[in-house]
Amino acid sequence: MSTKISKVFYGTLIHSLSLKSLEILQNTLLGIDCFGKIAFIEKDVLEEKILNEIIVQWKFPEEEVIRLSKWQFLMPGFIDTHTHAPQYPNAGTGMDLPLLDWLKRYTFPLERSYSSLSFAKKMYPTVVSRLLRNGTTTAVYFATTHLESSKYLAKLVKQNGQRGFVGKVNMDCNSPKDYVETLDDSVKSTEEFINYVLNLEEEKGESKLVYPIITPRFAITCTSQLMSSIGSLAKKYDIPIQSHLSENLDEIEFISELFPNLPDYTTVYDHHGLLNGKTIMAHGIHLSSKERKLIKERDVGISHCPNSNFAICSGLCNVRQLLNEGIKVGLGTDLSAGYSKSILNAVRNASIASRVIFMSHSSNDNDKSFPHLTLPELTYLATMGGAELVNLDKKIGNFLIGKEFDALLVDPNCNKSPLDIFDDFDDFERIFEKFMFLGDERNLKSIYVKGKKVSGTDFEEVNLHDKELLENLGELNGEICSVCKK
Ligand code: GUN
Ligand code: FE
To answer: CATH top-level class for 78-389?
Structure first.
């Protein structure tokens, strides 16, 4: 028992063991080692005496045990498998147009502004800290086409202690004149970006928290040559890929005009070497059974972004069908087509989308083959499902010994809590469900990534004022810190 223990919690843990199985462990002791990994979990530790013995066994001072109060619990951090950091300033606006018009009118003009690094420095800190504060311990980000701003985003994610995948966007056709790259520049700057992010981690000899991800925006804005070239980069560096697939009917129609010799949208990506077990495709709403078969064969994950699908009227994604066919599914916010920054909101909208599908099917007859998504399933999608999409399911997503501790300390009874507890009536199962459907960032007391507290209502943001950290954030060049305004 030589492992050095850095933190011990005593209380209730709630996590997913599988899609169908949500485990609630009360009176449990969980210890984290100095590398941020879960070193031990002791269940049903009822007696103080036993608790003391365990503490002696692990040589941990009892007074430092973090004892959760009555209705508090620990759950795994949320994984946002698809979001656009540069679009956050638009969140909550511009929901009056379908995808292709929405991109032209609202999104491209905003993203273009990130050609200025100082604009990126003003905008990006807000979205990263907001996502973290909402319990997103891992985020899969699209940046923009701009190399320097994208590097800055990757550095910022790391500096905030969030786990993340950051992609410099590729687009070399069917884009506005002032927001498009040449093929050559796009490939070159992508390779430079990859090397930058990989070295960002190695500088300090730490284990990885931030990874590069190959990010063709979608097949409409990428030439065949570009898709093939960056597919080769993904292979060369063994890194993941993300894009959009089958989100909107006009988009699909345009794809069939651009690639008349390929049978469908999914095959376009496959043809260019972009589909494998490390690929995340956002949406996948209107896929044919042939396309779903290919997705399953290639082991591609689908990021379900229901808020976005409702907000810009893209359609209803049948997650039950994807799951039944053995396709990996996670949740995404898809800021800012989706207006919410929170995976809790994605959970709620995924629930509603599945109920709408259920109602539209069961109105004809008594067909019960599309039941709505259950609480254990929704919890799984928000945590373990996301971990599978980013290929970190052996590392994060639930509480197993040896996994890294990415977790939320939830306080359903916090000051000004948005949910009410009825002590003699509620139990943990009900309170967990209430939190998933009614809770918000006020309930997130502490947010941990790899064992380290990085956000939450009791997190001292003063950390961000730390001079060394600010210096590490890099080249602030006398610019104003978004936190201290100095
Ligand atoms: N398809 C291509 N680009 C985008 C984007 O920025 N958001 C969404 N929702 N779909 C896209
Ligand atoms: Fe998107």
So the answer is: alpha beta
